[in-house]
Design goal:
The protein is mainly α. The chain contains eleven helices and no strands. Helices cover 75% and strands 0% of the residues. Helix 6 packs antiparallel against helix 11.
Length: 255
Amino acid sequence: MSELSGFYALWYREVKVFLRERSRIISSLVTPLIWLVAFGGGLGSIVGGGGSQAFYGVSYQAFIFPGVLMLTVLFTSIFFGLYIVWDKKVDFFKEVLVAPLSRLTLFSGKMMGGCTDSLLQAAILLILGVFFGISYTITSLPITIFFVLCMAAGTVSLGLAIGSQMTSFEGFGLVQSFVVLPLYFLSGALFPLTNLPGWLMTVTRLNPLTYIVDGMRGALLGIYQFSPWLDAGIALGFMAVFIAIGTFAFMKMSS
């Protein structure tokens, strides 16, 4: 088996599994809608008196749309690592590890499969965005996809790195409490950064996802807290660092 054939087989398997699991496709549609309709509509009617001035001239639902898009990709990507634990349980992964493929190919195939799943879910949400005040231009959509891809590649790699070192599903539950939720709620996904207290602003600035959601919000709504070039640079750095971490974790994983 060539490295390219092995890469394609791993990628294709992950995509087929995703497309066959209708519950994952439905949840990728329902969960963001709950956030946008229930949370965005409910809280948006209170914060700012239901008006748009508190959110730079857009509705609260439109303001949090990039954050909900990030949430969808973040949860899908991080918990993609859980499938590594499942593959270990059914001994599929042992067969993959003894295949005549490099660990880099194994990691790349799994990572790209996870990224494809995340991008498919993001595409569904982007289509629904027009119902929440999002309008796309010839530049806004490609820029948004760029940030989604950077985040997906980085967080899938992080999930794979964590999953490669775990042997039980229970341990992965800690990831939500100590990784996913802090990354999300300290990213400015649900609120403007301008009125944050100093200490919280410092913590938020240290979170790389802050710049990713800022880049998406700037592309879709024209609302930037930071320089677009800073957002893009940190997004690329985030992706590169966690791809390196995920690759290293796969290299050290025992068969």
